[in-house]
Design brief:
The chain is α+β, with helices and mostly antiparallel strands and 348 residues long. The protein is built from ten helices and 15 strands. A hairpin with a 6-residue loop joins strand 3 and strand 4. Helix 7 crosses helix 10. The structure holds 2,5-anhydro-1,6-di-O-phosphono-D-mannitol and magnesium ion (MG). The site of 2,5-anhydro-1,6-di-O-phosphono-D-mannitol (AHM) has 11 residues, from strand 5 and helix 8.
C-alpha cells in the first residue's frame, strides 16, 4: 500500500519510511517500527505544546525540582508525561527511564511485559531556553532488554553500554521541527510539515563533514577546564589561513540544537569536565549515548576525551560524562591535545 501511496507523491512520511526500512529485515516483528512511530506521535504532541508555550500560561518553572535538584519547567513535566504515556500505552517497551525521574519505570501490563525493548530519554533538553524562545529538543535511546521477556524490567536493562543501542534519535523544536534517528543503518532526518501534521523525509542518509569550522563550548568555563581542552580551544581561535582558522564559535546552550547544526555543517561540540562539574554536565544514557550513536552512524565521533562514549559502562542511571562529539578530524585533534597536555600535567 505504502509503495502505491509513495508512487502517487514525492513525499515520504516517517511512517512510510519506517515501514519501508522494516521490509529490509524480513524477520523483524515490527515492534521497533511501532515504537519509533509512537515516539513520532509523542513528539508531535510535545511540539504542539512547545509552539504554544507563550500563549498558554505554560512558561516558567514549577514548584518541584527533579532528581538532580534542578528546577523543572512546566513543559519538561508535560513532555515527560507525553513520552511516558506514548510508550506505556503503545506497549512496545517493558520499561522507560527519563532524565526527569529518579527511578526507572517497569510497566506492569501483559503487553509491556512481553515486549523486547526499553527506552531512555531526555524529554526536553535545553529547557532553560524555553522562556527565551530558543530551540530545544527531545533525545531518546532504545535497547533490547536484558531481563527475560515476560518479567518486569530491571535496572540492568537500563545500564547497558551505548554500543548495545538498537535505535536512537532526537527531535529538535526549532524554526521547523525535525526528527532525526538511526537504527544502526545510517541517519535520516524528517521535517514536520504542519499542514498535513506528518514528519516527511527531508535529510536522507545524513553525513557529518570530516572537518568543520565551528567549535561549540561554554567558553565561560574555559579556565576551569583541563589544559588539553584550553589548548584545543586556543588552537581553534588561532589565525591560520591554510587550515581555515580561526574557527567560528557557536554555542546555543541547547545540546540538540548545537549538535544538529554541527551535524549538518561540520563542527565539534564540547562539554568537558570543569572545576564545578568534574564529570561534565551531560548525562551518559539520556543525552550522550543517543547522540554518539547518531554521530558515529553519520561518520563522526563521540568520546569522553579518552574513550569512545558508546564503550562506557554505565554504573548508575543518572551518570554524567564529559562529551566531545562531532566531525571526526576535530574530535581526533582534541583527543591528541588532551593526551599530550593533560598527561604532561599529571606527570608534573
Ligand atoms: P538540561 O538537560 O538540564 O536541559 O541540560 C543540558 C543542557 C544542554 O542542552 C546544553 O548543551 C547544556 O545543558 C548547557 O549547559 P551550560 O549552560 O552549562 O553551558
Ligand atoms: Mg538534557
Amino acid at each position: 500500500m505504502w509503495r502505491y501511496l509513495r508512487a502517487m507523491s514525492s513525499i515520504v512520511t516517517l511512517s512510510e519510511f519506517i515501514m519501508e526500512r522494516q521490509a529490509d529485515f524480513p524477520y523483524a516483528s515490527g515492534d521497533l517500527s511501532r515504537l519509533l512511530a509512537d515516539i513520532g506521535i509523542a513528539s508531535k504532541i510535545v511540539n504542539h505544546k512547545v509552539n504554544k508555550a507563550g500563549l498558554q500560561d505554560i512558561l516558567g518553572a514549577m514548584e518541584s525540582t527533579n532528581v538532580q535538584g534542578e528546577t523543572q519547567m512546566k513543559l519538561d513535566v508535560f513532555a515527560d508525561q507525553a513520552l511516558l504515556n506514548a510508550v506505556r500505552w503503545g506497549g512496545q517497551v517493558c520499561g522507560a527511564a527519563s532524565e526527569e525521574n529518579e527511578r526507572y519505570f517497569a510497566f506492569d501490563t501483559e503487553t509491556c511485559r512481553k515486549s523486547k525493548y526499553v527506552i531512555l530519554f531526555d524529554p526536553l533538553d535545553g529547557s532553560s531556553n524555553i522562556d527565551v524562545n530558543v530551540s530545544i529538543g527531545t533525545i531518546f535511546s532504545v535497547f533490547r532488554r536484558k531481563s527475560s521477556v515476560g518479567d518486569l524490567a530491571n535496572v540492568n536493562d537500563f545500564l547497558q553500554r551505548g554500543a548495545e543501542q538498537v535505535a536512537a534519535g532526537y527531535v529538535i523544536y526549532g524554526s521547523s521541527t525535525m526528527l532525526v534517528y538511526t537504527t544502526g543503518h545510517g541517519v535520516n532526518g524528517f521535517t514536520l510539515e504542519p499542514s498535513i501534521g506528518e514528519f516527511c523525509l527531508s535529510h536522507e542518509n545524513m553525513r557529518i563533514p570530516e572537518d568543520g569550522k565551528i567549535y561549540s563550548i561554554n567558553e565561560g568555563n574555559l579556565y576551569t577546564c583541563s589544559k588539553g581542552v584550553q589548548t584545543y580551544v586556543d588552537w581553534c581561535r588561532q589565525n591560520d589561513k591554510k587550515t581555515s582558522r580561526p574557527y567560528s564559535a557557536r554555542y546555543i546552550g541547547s545540546l540538540v540544537a548545537d549538535f544538529h547544526r554541527n551535524l549538518i555543517k561540520g563542527g565539534i561540540y564540547i562539554y568537558p569536565g570543569t572545576e564545578k562539574n568534574p564529570e561534565g554536565k551531560l548525562r551518559l544514557q539520556y543525552e550522550c549515548n543517543p547522540l554518539a550513536f547518531i554521530a558515529e552512524q553519520a561518520g563522526g565521533l563521540a568520546t569522553d576525551g579518552k574513550q569512545r562514549i558508546m564503550d562506557l559502562q554505565p554504573k548508575e542511571l543518572h551518570q554524567r560524562t564529559p562529551l566531545f562529539i562531532g566531525s571526526k578530524n576535530m574530535v581526533e585533534r582534541v583527543h591528541q591535545m588532551i593526551a599530550e597536555y593533560d598527561q604532561a600535567e599529571i606527570k608534573n
